[in-house]
Amino acid sequence: MNDSKSLRSRIAKTVRNIPRSGIRDFFEIVSSREDVISLGIGEPDFVTPWHIREAAASALDRGATSYTSNMGLLSLRRGISRYVEKKTGIAYNPEDEVLVTVGVSEGLDLAIRALIEPGDEVLYHEPSYVSYNPLIALAYGRSVAVETKKENGFRLTRAGLEEKVTAKTKVLLLNYPNNPTGAALTQKDVEEIAAFAIERDLIVFTDEIYDELTYDRDHFSIISVPGMRERTIYLHGFSKAWAMTGFRMGFTCAPPELTEAMMKIHQYSMLCAPILSQEASIEALKHAEKDIALMKAEYKKRRNFIHASFEEMGIPCVRPEGAFYAFADISQFGMTAKEFALKLLDEQNVACVPGTAFGACGEGFIRCSYATSLEEIKEAMLRIARFIETL
Amino acid sequence: MNELLELLKQNALESPENLAKMLGTSAEEVKTRIAEYEKTGVIRAYQAVVNEEKLDASLVTTVIEVKVTPESEGGFNRIAERISRFPEVDSLFLMSGGFDLLLFIKGRTMHEAAGFVSEKLATMPGVTSTSTHFMMKTYKKNGILMQQGEDNERLKVSP
Asked: How far apart are the C-alpha atoms of B10 and A362, rounded to whole Å?
């Protein structure tokens, strides 16, 4: 009875139906090779700034090894509240509107599970981060993708939303600056989307993990639009701008009713975020402005370089405005994105992620992360140029 | 510090074409600006940052604190410029605090460095005292870590 077929049949149908991540497939191929230059990495190449690591180490020395309050350390929540207010002008009460989570991944899972009932529809834009669709499925919701187009700079438009909204739409999920396209929204774009959400009485989840990494103008958050604070769950975390991916620190800001609902799930499934990571994050909020500025300046140079290089090669690529990804259009070569990525890996040892890992409409694109050193990016661009000569 | 100079300080061998791509400007513009920096003396030289410990015949670096009597005209400048002309002197700075000049001397042996101090430096009019230290190990120089970086353990592909 314990043969693998019988075990597989006992796995919950929802889980069985979720496809493996395209990223994971690709990861296994890349991992089996030596000397690959990888533009496939979705995390900073910087190590967490020293003073933040030091804060975690010193907390460990002090014996900070206990649970914390379910919501997270109050001093951290106060810091988060000050940070968000400074960035967006919107104040959240650290007592009952800020929840510390294990990465934005957990925050998003909590938000979805707290609000979605079977059959509820969640509008989100594709190409998108890989976990949105599966997390919605795990909550028995229906994910409804709105395609964003290269021609529009991969920005979500009101017209796109109007096409897909139905009476069952409950939530709109946003992610700008965007992984994988590098797109960012202008204040006008955001205001149009906000007006749509208000008209349709939707709850908005906004994943703004990349907000600090907006290169050509200041990021504008949807919570700053009047009428949005009361219908939005704002998701953010320390992974990207602070280079703290391994600390797994995220947070949500939302009205007390929504925060309380997410807290219920969090307290039973996670109890609390790790205390050392919380201690490190307190330091991160206090003293990291200069570190962030330095890393951002470095990403910007790489963004300029990678974008100019693609243009020079004749590979169309929307100029990325945020995050650390370039989404290059390789459709002219008559291959699928996966074929292109595999052949590039095979012939030139450069790894990038096929756009289809981020939704079907990513066909014809590859995602190239510039969270890797300029030296590597330069070499990778030379290799890609050599590669396309042979096609 | 402007971005072009920052990039050149990191890698002076970077091509004008690549610098232009990073800065969002043209290669011509980069070349013009570099020529201007060279002409006005903002850029004084291009050098390799060498990890001498990797070489067989590594040089001994000596750090010398020097007290001098400033002159009524010209203060410290004349004596500092005089000392800086010795080829043994790698760097020389005027300091505040318990001494006046800080020298970095390169020599093949400690003996050679000691000879420079006793024969050339200490006997120079105006030098009132010297305090000599030998440098034991270099961890970082000109902003460059001498040990090759911490190995990054990132996954090769991640979402």
From this structure: 36
Which residues lie across from B132 on neighbouring strands? Answer: B64
Q: Which of A231, A213, A211 is nearest to A221 (CA)?
A: A211
Task: Map residue A205 onto helix, strand or coil.
Answer: strand
Per-residue pLDDT averaged across A369-389, rounded?
96
* CATH of the structural domain A50-287, one choice from 3.60.15.10, 2.60.40.790, 3.40.50.1260, 3.40.640.10: 3.40.640.10
**Domain boundaries defined on chain A:** 4-46+290-389, 50-287
Residue of B nearest to A353 (CA): B157
DSSP A14-64: HHHHSPPPHHHHHHHHHHTSSSPEE----S-SSPPPHHHHHHHHHHHHTT-
Predicted TM-score of the model (pTM) = 0.89
Candidates B7, B21, B152, partner chain A, best to mutate (most A CBs within 10 A): B21
pLDDT tens for each residue of A127-158:
999 999 999 999 999 999 999 999 999 999 99
Give the CATH H-level superfamily of domain A4-46+290-389: Aspartate Aminotransferase, domain 1 (3.90.1150.10)
Is B23 touching A (CB cutoff 8 A)? yes
Give pLDDT tens digits for A246-282.
999 999 999 999 999 999 999 999 999 999 999 999 9
Task: Give the number of other Cβ atoms within 10 Å of residue A326's Cβ.
Answer: 29
Neighbouring CB atoms inside 10 A of B50's CB total: 12
The tens digit of pLDDT for each residue in A148-186 reads: 999 999 999 999 999 999 999 999 999 999 999 999 999
Interface pTM, i.e. ipTM: 0.80
